[in-house]
Amino acid sequence: MKNLLFVMAFLFVAESQSQTQPFPANKVHGNGLMASTKNSQDAETSYNTWKGNFVTTCSNGRYRIKFDDPNKTVSEGIAYGMLLSAYKGDKTLFDGLWLYYKDNVNSNGVMNWKINGCSGTDGFNGATDAELDAAMALIVADYQWTSVGTINYKNDAKTLITAIKNYEVEANTYVLKPGDQFGGSLITNPSYYSPAYYRAFGAYTNDTAFWNQVAAKAYTVINNNLTQNNAVGGLVSDWCEASGAYSSRGGNTYSYDAARTPWRIVVDYIWYGNADAKTYAKKSSDFVRVNLGGSNNIKDGYNQNGSVSGQWHNATFVGAFACAAMAGENQSHLDVSYNDLKNLNEPNSYFNQTLKTLYSFLLTGNFYLPLNATLSNDNFDIEKSTVTLYPNPSADRITINAPQQSTISIISPSGSIVHQQKTTSESTEINLAHHSTGIYFVKISNDDFKSVTKKVILK
């Protein structure tokens, strides 16, 4: 009996210290192509280079990301780092980046966009792309480590999503503002648009109607911009009005802002199968494959008519187009694009190396839609619910009766989570036939992470 109690205690300690999805995830996306030569080691190598060159420590467990001027840090870089560390399972770095973000927020609860090293605001107020990436990263962190530790990722994610809704989406139009203090229908930035995130935000906060409208508006603005300016492929301008016309801010070419657009948009196809996302991404991929003659000919800037305005061949542009090729329906072009990105070596360029790593995570199946952002998060009191499972012992399958929208985790004798899913009905059958015999624990939790645990014997 003492041995059994020790094993149970070990399992619960191991579970509390583990993560839901260790790296590499190696997910096979539900939509689109994946490169034949994809290898998560490529993504890990890129991550290690990025981390070694751009992550630096502050006091009290804070971390920051060095900008082009290494004495500065921008909110964009913090949020990129949060995404990467969450998907990589690098909890110490993730927590330190998020604490740094929170140390530097304005009165609206969004990070001031540029900071002097570890403290001191150099650029006031928010940049919306940073908020979007940080909020999505918090959802991933909630999935990875749950929200029962010193940082409540779930509450922080919901708070930040609310701030984005209130301050960074123009009232009544659903146009994404580029910051909490400016922009809207007269100034917007298509490269910030992240419709896949919006759908995740909607499910996570039970606000799908609003966020679906923001997603729909993103495609309207992009298509307006392409049509009004007779753009080739998916060459959106860096900045524009919601009408598609050029804005007073300038930014009329496909340059270092716009270059990220194919990556952000294709995620909506990879995760959700969205037809508008596929159409845009295929246009972008076909521009490279047909108009340019392949990935090796990409330069770092274009006019919207397709004429070249840049001179360098770098990861910011190559990798975004490689991601677009996942929706381009041409396997050989995707394979060449993947290898082109892999072979680019720009370790000391903040923007190029960071984006190369993000692109590589998506291309290798390590930038995925987490389970906790796929269904509504209606809360229920699990501790007052009736939870049963049978048969027990079992030779293969068990049926679990638990409230709809609870999360079932199967914990192996070694303490790892071998199966996890969100319930869609009150009765869920799980097949354990391919697992070894022994004592397993079945944890059923709600979205406040209250839980009940049952023991099952697999014979």
TrEMBL record:
One of its GO terms (molecular function) is hydrolase activity. SUPFAM superfamilies: Six-hairpin glycosidases. It catalyses: Endohydrolysis of (1->4)-beta-D-glucosidic linkages in cellulose, lichenin and cereal beta-D-glucans. It is an enzyme of class 3 (hydrolase). Belongs to the glycosyl hydrolase 8 (cellulase D) family. Keywords: Carbohydrate metabolism, Cellulose degradation, Glycosidase, Hydrolase, Polysaccharide degradation, Signal. Signal peptide: none annotated. It comes from Flavobacterium artemisiae. This is cellulase. Its EC number is 3.2.1.4. NCBIfam families: Por_Secre_tail. Residues 389-457 form the Secretion system C-terminal sorting domain. The keyword Hydrolase applies. InterPro entries: 6-hairpin_glycosidase_sf, 6hp_glycosidase-like_sf, Glyco_hydro_8, Secre_tail.
